[in-house]
Amino acid sequence: MAKPVSIEVWNPSGKYRVVSTKPMPGTRWINLLIEQDCRVEICTQKKTILSVEDIIALIGDKCDGVIGQLTEDWGETLFSALSRAGGKAFSNMAVGYNNVDVDAANKYGVAVGNTPGVLTETTAELAASLSLSAARRIVEADEFMRAGLYDGWLPNLFVGNLLKGQTVGVIGAGRIGSAYARMMVEGFKMNLIYYDLYQATRLEKFVTAYGQFLKANGEQPVTWKRASSMEEVLREADVISLHPILDKTTYHLVNKNSLAIMKKEAVLVNCSRGPVIDEVALVEHLKQNPMFRVGLDVFEDEPYMKPGLADLKNAVVVPHIASASKWTREGMATLAALNVLGKIKGYPVWSNPNQVEPFLNENAPPPAASPSIVNSKALGLPVSRL
Ligand SMILES: NC(=O)c1ccc[n+]([C@@H]2O[C@H](COP(=O)([O-])OP(=O)(O)OC[C@H]3O[C@@H](n4cnc5c(N)ncnc54)[C@H](O)[C@@H]3O)[C@@H](O)[C@H]2O)c1
């Protein structure tokens, strides 16, 4: 029998019971649920990652919907518990949903929401920050300064890589990968090489137009290339950022062999999911190649790092904060709450999950729709005509 978990309750007399497994930023998401007759229960347990048993206890005997987190294992056990409690809606507070077994959700008729449209720029900005931090050795230099080791300017002190004119490689040029590519091309005048299963036409057009603009101003134009393999990107790029989804095809995409073909002074950034890199192989590669640098937001066995990584000066590591801007996190909370609310109320699904601005306008009520349900087709849910 699972132990009871501590909760905070809003609007105790609400008709629908909605559980959030974590406190989330802002209050708009709570108010939107309360206004629609929901009793909102927020888990306040002082434990970062809830177990399946903890979540079963939270779901209890009657639960209409749950807002959960990417650290939780949403599979057969939880979806069957939610279904038994009368629940028909779950939303991850994340765009990625590799922690969710969508087939299991389909089996129990539970809608699965995610939160695209608000993470793109924030995550791309963190990838750009990690690229710069690694290329210019910001963290190492900061530690040096704080340790009182700086005793004057020196020609060889913390020499790093100039980005301008170098090649940025993007693996997975979807929403975030494309936004990152634009930042690096426009901000630092880097040439682009990318690999994706699909052509990133808008991104290509952007780089072409920017190249023409530079040329017209007498500057060296930037260029783009769509690689026919990931290896081509790894071989040619000076800075490589990983932005694919995590699935069977991208697990350990970067491994011992792929690291071996990268330039010895390349910078590798990962803001996607930890298991996209074989972290043990990466640690070994960093040890052997001190001029090779990485910026990591995600790790293979979060919250842990593989042995040795924390000691390496050529690694910049941050704790999965790529989406951590106030606007984004409040937006994610709002979209997750509206995904669950929409299903409870029988609303249709929003037709374009990438265009969610109407849901984020604080001065108007949100549209009567679920912003993004990933299994809407499988469940045969109607699509909004708005
Ligand atoms: N670190 C964070 O906090 C954070 C924040 C947001 C998103 N993410 C991760 O980033 C991922 C991407 O987000 P997005 O919104 O850009 O998703 P997206 O679906 O728009 O883009 C993913 C891209 O990866 C491509 N892809 C899939 N398999 C591939 C393969 N084998 N090789 C190359 N490309 C492949 C797809 O075609 C697609 O273009 C999410 O799934 C999530 O896991 C992490």
Automatic annotation (TrEMBL):
Pfam families: 2-Hacid_dh (PF00389), 2-Hacid_dh_C (PF02826). Keywords: Glycolate pathway, NAD, Oxidoreductase, Peroxisome, Photorespiration. SUPFAM superfamilies: Formate/glycerate dehydrogenase catalytic domain-like, NAD(P)-binding Rossmann-fold domains. One of its GO terms (cellular component) is peroxisome. GO terms for molecular function: glyoxylate reductase (NADPH) activity; hydroxypyruvate reductase (NADH) activity; NAD binding. Residues 130-322 form the D-isomer specific 2-hydroxyacid dehydrogenase NAD-binding domain. Residues 34-348 form the D-isomer specific 2-hydroxyacid dehydrogenase catalytic domain. Signal peptide: none annotated. The keyword Oxidoreductase applies. GO terms for biological process: oxidative photosynthetic carbon pathway. Its EC number is 1.1.1.29. It is found in: Peroxisome. It catalyses: (R)-glycerate + NAD(+) = 3-hydroxypyruvate + NADH + H(+). InterPro entries: D-isomer_2-hydroxyacid_DH, D-isomer_2_OHA_DH_cat_dom, D-isomer_DH_CS1, D-isomer_DH_NAD-bd, NAD(P)-bd_dom_sf. The keyword rRNA-binding does not apply. Pathway: Photosynthesis; photorespiration; 3-phospho-D-glycerate from glycine: step 3/4. CDD domains: GDH. Belongs to the D-isomer specific 2-hydroxyacid dehydrogenase family. This is glycerate dehydrogenase. It comes from Pyrus x bretschneideri.
